[in-house]
Amino acid sequence: MSQNNENTLMIILVSCVATIGGFLFGFDSGVINGTVDGLQGAFKSDNAGTGFNVSSMLLGCAVGAFSAGRLADRFGRRPLLITAAVFFIISAWGSGVSTSSMEFVVYRILGGLAVGAASVMAPAYISEIAPARFRGTLSSVQQVAIIFGLFSAFVSNYFLANIAGSSTAEFWMGYQAWRWMFWIELIPATLFLVALMFIPESPRYLVMSKNTEKAKRVLNALYGDAQGQSKLQEIEASRETQESKPKLTDLIDKVSGKIRPIMWVGIGLAVFQQLVGINVVFYYGAVLWQAAGFSESDALMINVISGAVSIAAVFVTMFLIDKVGRKPFLLIGSVGMTFALGTMVYIFANSGLDANGNLSLGDQGLIALIAANAYVFFFNLSWGPVMWVMLGEMFPNQIRGSGLAVAGFAQWSANFIVTFSFPIFLASIGLAGAYSIYALGALISIVFVYKLVQETRGKELEEMQG
């Protein structure tokens, strides 16, 4: 194997370790899907209480995402990922042993801190070690990991519920199946912690911290001696143009006194990714399809199918994003989601009710399932991976940590609002009303991308302006 191939393989392996954080992000987000009935029974919660139990993790996500960028600029990318791994382990164990809503919420918020930190630091870390020619591909592996984590949680939930009889039935050692759904996460969380001990710190962080010798060793290991030296000079030249250490006030343009335009684009990308309602499918998929008249077992199987569709979509993006670019994928996804969501709204709005008050889709049930999976496909072809790729690479070096902090906070805040409101919408305006809101979000996102988003394909991080 040539030296160049060895260096490329090492970059890929290091990136894959970072994306275990994405897998845990997905697993932690998806596992709640199969536990809603168990949580309602164990904690005697109403619609609003259930919404908060499910969405409480997102409060931690918002804080974790906001804090991670700044803390990573101070302590490094790798220590932040290690801390996140520890929090994943504590949260997985604690969520399963909880005996009250308050205890459960505390452990879920801890998990949220880990998810929030991993969501911004894993793509940022990958962007900072990967060369521009395949940075998009490696960064989109993060979304593959997220979706594979979701898929794994759906599969795990499905089998645990079916082996036990239901999510609320006793499983192993006298504990209900829904508790074991959380404990399964201990396996990948521990693997993540161990693997992080073997990856290097980000060379761009090391240069920013004036640890040039260590940065040189890392770059030589990743790129080879000649290219590593050249890359070091590029990063140092970029650092020399910076007036001070990164800080939040760097997000304000010193000439105009206003927030930098690139920051508004980052916030817009982060918020629109949630306003299309995708996490309603990820968090409440079982509830959604039971409300549409399917059994718990069938609803959990639909989640598995959606997870498989998601993985297929992300692989398409992963192989084409560095050839086609970021913006075309976003536009295709927004248009596709608008039509798919519109179809679901039409079917939900024109369906009758059964004796239990649930929607009876009748002959249109198959069309609704196809539309729902088309919606999931278009999201994971576009906004799922591309938003994280762009946030990891679109900001100039000086503001990358701060930009990720603010955009990540906006993303998880929007996620919390959408997730918390869904059970309330379901009870008040029904599935058709809720999905009308998400369809409108997808429609507006078309205009946002077309007018404001700039292509970043093929650019080195040192070239980013804003």
UniProtKB/TrEMBL annotation:
Keywords tagged on the record: Cell membrane, Membrane, Transmembrane, Transmembrane helix, Transport
Aminoacyl-tRNA synthetase listed as a keyword: no
Chief subcellular location: membrane
Keyword Transmembrane helix found: yes
Pfam (any one): Sugar_tr
Membrane topology, record value: Multi-pass membrane protein
Transmembrane segments: 7-27, 47-68, 80-99, 105-126, 138-160, 180-199, 262-287, 299-321, 328-349, 369-391, 403-426, 432-453
All copies of domain Major facilitator superfamily (MFS) profile, residue ranges: 14-457
Subcellular location: Cell membrane
SUPFAM superfamilies in the record: MFS general substrate transporter
Protein family (similarity comment): Belongs to the major facilitator superfamily. Sugar transporter (TC 2.A.1.1) family.
PANTHER family in alphabetical order: D-XYLOSE-PROTON SYMPORTER-LIKE 2
Official protein name in the record: Sugar porter family MFS transporter
Organism name: Paraglaciecola mesophila
